[in-house]
Amino acid sequence: MTERAFTVVRAGALTTVQDRGRAGYAHLGVPRSGALDPYAAALANRLVGNDDGAAVLETTLTGCAVRPRCAVAVAVGGAPCPVAVDGRPAAWGAAVRVPAGAVLDVGTAGRGLRSYVAFAGGVAAEAVLGSRSTDLLSGLGPAPLVDGAVLALGAPPSGRAHFEAAPWPGVPDELVLRVRWGPRADWFADGALRTLTSRPYRVSAASNRIGLRVQGPPLERARAGELPSEGMVLGAVQVPPDGLPVVFLADHPTTGGYPVVAVVHEPDLAAAAQARPGTPVRFVGAGGGAR
Amino acid sequence: MRALEVGERALLLEFRDGEETGAFHAELLRRRAAGALPAVRDVVPAARTVLLDGVADPRRLAAEMAAWEVPPPRWRAQPVVELPVRYDGPDLAEVAGVWGVAPREVPRIHAGAEYRVAFCGFAPGFGYLTGLPERYAVPRRSTPRTAVPAGSVGLAGPYTGVYPRSSPGGWQLVGTTDALLWDPAREPAALLAPGTRVRFVEGAG
User: What NCBIfam families does the record tag this protein with (chain A) (predicted)?
Assistant: First the structure.
């Protein structure tokens, strides 16, 4: 078969199709979605000559394996992991030629959590509201990969790759998230604000594409009562009644009813996407709105 | 109006009540359509706030908006979306009890009000509709249902909502509509967007 497509041989723990997401529909209740580590997704795309926003596969810890029906250039980036073509080791962080019918295996990440697999031409899943991203909160976009699924590939890019290998910033041993105080910081006790930026937290295993949950000292509210639902931004640090902060990631709900104590500097969220459960987290004041 | 900074690129505008929120939201949309608003990626109204996200200079915009004259909204000028409803929901009797009326009175009261989408959320295409007089507010169910069928018309607090697809939910269900609330292949995808006027029409569904 000569068609431009690949078969999913091993879907892995959670592999989704992601691009830059669907911004501008929050008022309809549609999350932004998109690659959690957008820098890694863009780098992988550049290695195969794609535009930064072409759709890639985002794996979670255990990678995935696919069998393209056509010869295709592929690059794996993000969380470092072993890469193999028909069982033979291949380069990570560089373009790899996968012959038609060969199996590309993206192994378990040695560090970090989410690897990105870019195919020359991109994954050509059906776009919904201008994006091919899987949105786990509302179910928009292609379903998460399952074994045996067949996904189409786009036409190969006419231009050459922008560069041959990509430097990868790596995964820090500690996740440092710069924050500014949020719109509802006054709902919390002064001591709670100090707690957030001075005490250690750890990434909780309950984290997902919707939010990075952390464990550590709970934040004490200064004000009781309910907050009427209000719009939520990417990076909002929402605090439910248990006092444990949740950092909103790409698939977060567009409105929410828990007070937002702080907002994470958006570029820091890519590192949050790579932090495994147990990773130490420090919230640090970024100046500006922080007090 | 109070403007609160949300990170580096967003503003949360807070108002006294839903009425003032709706009026300001309508003014924001009017100015955006007229090209008289700086680029904003998202305008997200909610119960008593409007979030502006993706703003280059939030502080400057907040200062500008403080000087705006916001006219009373002209809802009557908006087109009305009619939703045909069968009032056959499993919580009809319970809602009638809370309202202190006979169950057969519920459709008359509910379909007699005129609604407006105050905001969306929960799921794509789910609108929070206001318009039912305050005395008809109902509590959420103490135990949410694990699956509410698509098209269910529910009540919670002062709001009416229609489930665009089957999902868990704790609203009191009074009826069913066959209207397609959400269709990504349609333009626009959502039948109900913030500001849309809505009327429920009994029986035709």
Answer: urea_amlyse_rel
Percentage with pLDDT > 90 across chain B: 90
Subunit contact A28:B119, Cβ cutoff 8 A:
no
What pLDDT score does A244 carry?
Answer: 97
- The answer to whether B184 contacts A138, with C-beta atoms less than 8 Å apart, is no
- Find which of B4, B13, B43, B117 to mutate to test the A interface (most A CBs within 10 Å of its CB): B4
- Say yes or no for a CB contact (<8 Å) between B6 and A236: yes
List Cβ neighbours of B113 (8 Å cut-off, separation of 6 or more): B131, B132, B133
**Domains along chain B with CATH numbers:** 2-73 (3.30.1360.40), 77-202 (2.40.100.10)
Closest CA to A98 of A121, A78, A79: A121
pLDDT tens sequence across B114-163: 999 999 988 899 999 999 999 999 999 999 999 999 999 999 999 999 99
Instruction: Find tokens 């949105």 and name the residue.
Output: A135
In chain A, the domains with their CATH numbers are 5-152 (no CATH), 175-285 (2.40.100.10)
In this complex, do B47 and A260 lie within 8 Å of one another by their Cβ atoms? no
Cβ of A182 under 8 Å from any chain B Cβ?
Answer: yes
Contact A65, A82 (CB under 8 A): no
Predicted TM-score of the model (pTM): 0.93
Q: Does the pLDDT at position B167 exceed 60?
A: yes
